[in-house]
């Protein structure tokens, strides 16, 4: 499915939209080596960022949450990128997967780890704190909640701040995946329909 929302060129933006554009394309995301491009060759924002220009007040706030999650969190770079890829797998978001696999490689994620995350699994990390964060992320994407044990384990590993930032990460990247579906035309891969097993002719279950 093609994008529903046309990309806007920098010269087509009004003053408030330009503020959002500069915050995204000229902020922390644009500093240092670029693992993936934020804009196309003509300057149109890519992926979920283009839609943020539709409502500058909301778009500016949303991009600020994303910048805080990526650059001001107590979560390690590896945990952050693995958690994002867990969300990408849950939503089957090709853009998030492509972008954050590229970032993940710069953070030391191995190809076997990326393969596992791409398939919806969790890598067998040697770091107990990493395993705890990924189990919590998987639970949040699967059920939208944590058990008491998952809550206690994650707080023990990352503190209440870390858990808050992890839940914010899950919510933020789920929001981006939703916006990608609505505005960029990104659709999940079709999966075969599983038909329930019919009851036996004897009537027993």
UniProtKB/TrEMBL annotation:
<dbReference type="InterPro" id="IPR003779">
    <property type="entry name" value="CMD-like"/>
</dbReference>
<dbReference type="Pfam" id="PF02627">
    <property type="entry name" value="CMD"/>
</dbReference>
<protein>
    <submittedName>
        <fullName>Carboxymuconolactone decarboxylase family protein</fullName>
    </submittedName>
</protein>
<feature type="domain" description="Carboxymuconolactone decarboxylase-like">
    <location>
        <begin position="57"/>
        <end position="138"/>
    </location>
</feature>
<dbReference type="InterPro" id="IPR029032">
    <property type="entry name" value="AhpD-like"/>
</dbReference>
């Amino acid at each position: 499915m093609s994008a529903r929302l046309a990309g806007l060129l920098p010269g087509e933006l009004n003053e408030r939209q330009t503020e959002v554009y500069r915050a995204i394309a000229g902020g922390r995301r644009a500093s240092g080596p670029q693992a993936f491009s934020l804009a196309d060759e003509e300057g149109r924002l890519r992926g979920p960022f283009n839609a943020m220009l539709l409502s500058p007040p909301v778009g500016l706030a949303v991009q600020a949450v994303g910048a805080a999650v990526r650059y001001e969190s107590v979560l390690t770079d590896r945990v952050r990128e693995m958690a994002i890829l867990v969300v990408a797998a849950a939503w089957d978001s090709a853009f998030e997967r492509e972008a954050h696999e590229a970032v993940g490689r710069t953070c030391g994620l191995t190809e076997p780890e990326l393969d596992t995350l791409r398939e919806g699994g969790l890598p067998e990390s040697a770091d107990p704190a990493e395993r705890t964060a990924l189990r919590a992320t998987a639970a949040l994407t699967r059920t939208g909640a944590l058990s008491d044990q998952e809550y206690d384990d994650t707080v023990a590993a990352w503190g209440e701040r870390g858990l808050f930032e992890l839940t914010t990460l899950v919510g933020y990247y789920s929001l981006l995946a939703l916006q990608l579906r609505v505005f960029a035309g990104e659709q999940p891969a079709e999966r075969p329909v599983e038909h329930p097993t019919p009851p036996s002719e004897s009537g027993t279950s």
